[in-house]
Structures are given as structure tokens and as C-alpha cells.
Amino acid sequence: MDPVQNTGEAENVESNGTASVCDDDSKEKLDQVINYIHKTLVILHQLHLSLASSQLLHLLPRLNSLVSELNSMCKLSEKCNIQTPTKVLSLIDDGKNPDELARLMIFKVTIFFLISLLKWVRVLLCSC
Prior knowledge:
mainly alpha, disordered N terminus
């Protein structure tokens, strides 16, 4: 899986050189998926309460509601194009915090920048 694929619609470069995100439709779809996930979690909680309190009368409608929400969520998620680096997924599978990967990458970039800066300073000092 590629970490980033530029589809041409994800970013537009403005006249001042900054990039602006213009895929509001993708954001809206993602928000809808998040809302369906929230609704599904609420239904699962209600289902758990029904089973715990032996209210089997409410079990079938809640199961139907759960299946309906999962169906809707699945349909919406197919329209969302979210790419996650495989390294992040493997960290999650290993039970590790994926934020550690971000910290490590920021640390490596910072070190690289500092080394490059020191090389330039050395070149500038040697040329004087």
C-alpha cells in the first residue's frame, strides 16, 4: 500500500505557494462513517443491556437495528478513500501505539535537518 497517492483532487496549490485541502466531499463521507460508528456503538451498548437484564423482547429489534447500521456504515466506508501506511497497521496489530511512529519520524526529520544545518554552517565558516 502506498503511503500517499496524489489523485489530483486532494490538494490545490494556491498562488502564494501553500496547499489547501479541497476534498470536502471526502471529509463529509468520513464524518458520516464516524456518525454511523457512534450509532453502532450505542446500539451495541443497548444490546448488551438487553442481554444483561434478560429483556429478550427488545433483542430482535435491536439486532435488526445493529445489522442496518453496520450495512449503512459498510456502504459509506466503501466510498471513503483513506490510505493508512502498513507500518501503522502492523504497530496496531502488535498492540503498540501508532503515535510512536509519528514521534519517531518527526525525530528522524529533526535530526536530519540539524545535521544538514550543521554542514551548511561548517561550509560557511570554512569559506570565510
